[in-house]
Amino acid sequence: MAAAKKPTKSRLGVIGVKPVDLFSSLKLELSALIVCATAIAFAMCWFLLKFGWSGWIAMPLTLVVALGITYVFSRGITAPLRQMRDVAEAMADGDYTVRVTIDPTRHDEVGQLARSFNEMAEELEHADKMRLDMIANVSHELRTPVSALQAMVENMADGVTEPTPANLESILTQTQRLSDLIAFLLDLSRMEAGAASLNIEQFNMAEFLDETVEPLEITDGGHAHDIQMHVPGDITMEGDQDRLRQLFTNIIANALKHSPDGTTVLIETHEDTNNGTIVTNVVNFGSQIAAADRSAIFRRFVKGKPGPGTESGGTGLGLSIARWAAQLHGGNVKVVDDERGADFEITLPKYHISAL
């Protein structure tokens, strides 16, 4: 990212409250400005004519005064627009720290636009920071298995170590780690593209979740998590099993990662016949998620905070990929209130609806 430029005074100068700022609509502000300028010009013209001024002098002078009044007051209306132009130019140069300074009491369309512009700038600044962190994290994550693979293969080539099953298993583990990282990057590129093709088929939900949980139980290893599943055997739905497996794998793996060893992760599924949806709750009994953080954790590159006895790390893409997979199916993922712990609720339509 380019070095941050120090914002100029024009970008940071606080916009004072003008009389027209008292209105909540830009149309009313412009109307009031025109009426005031016209009234002042008329009064001035009448006054000059009454005291014997020539009309050829009074009329031009009155027009100049009216234009001056309009110009002075219109600057207060358009100042945020000029700031937005300057800020947009700075952001185009790579400086995402600049903001439009707007009076908090201003509620017309220009004020609303300025606040929305600042929100966009904050999102871009966050995304750029997270992108740089992601590059650093991925570089580190890639370097570790590559270095390990190189060392093990070199030792085998030099005859220092034997190609025993244990050594080959270590090599396999590192290659799987590389494969997972590459899969994350491919998923990220699909997310950036905004869409992906879906292979829709009907399947049994209980069988699907059993197949999804089985490898997670194996990789959970010695953490001794107890995965309890309450899924009726007669629930079926339509969807892309590969994409949905990404969704449920990431959500369940996240629950396991942030659960202390020896605790329970509960998976509950039921059919909402009124809305035509399948609702699955993945409950992590080991921790709670603050209401203020429930939206942020689904943003790309955002990593959860580890608790006592829980793991951290990762790329910060798991939950964002899960939400993306749910949205591809017309569903959603969110954190809901649950006194038992962190409860991720996955809502998916029972029948796939093709996009028009």
TrEMBL record:
The chain crosses the membrane at residues 28-49, 55-74. Residues 137-352 form the Histidine kinase domain. Its main location: membrane. GO terms for molecular function: ATP binding; phosphorelay sensor kinase activity. It is a multi-pass membrane protein. GO terms for cellular component: plasma membrane. CDD domains: HAMP, HATPase, HisKA. Residues 75-129 form the HAMP domain. Its EC number is 2.7.13.3. The keyword Protein biosynthesis does not apply. Keywords: ATP-binding, Cell membrane, Kinase, Membrane, Nucleotide-binding, Phosphoprotein, Transferase, Transmembrane, Transmembrane helix, Two-component regulatory system. InterPro entries: HAMP_dom, HATPase_C_sf, HATPase_dom, His_kinase_dom, HisK_dim/P_dom, HisK_dim/P_sf, HssS/ArlS-like, Sig_transdc_His_kin-like_C. It is found in: Cell membrane. It holds the Pfam family HATPase_c. It catalyses: ATP + protein L-histidine = ADP + protein N-phospho-L-histidine. This is histidine kinase. It comes from Bifidobacterium imperatoris. The lineage of its organism: Bacteria, Bacillati, Actinomycetota, Actinomycetes, Bifidobacteriales.
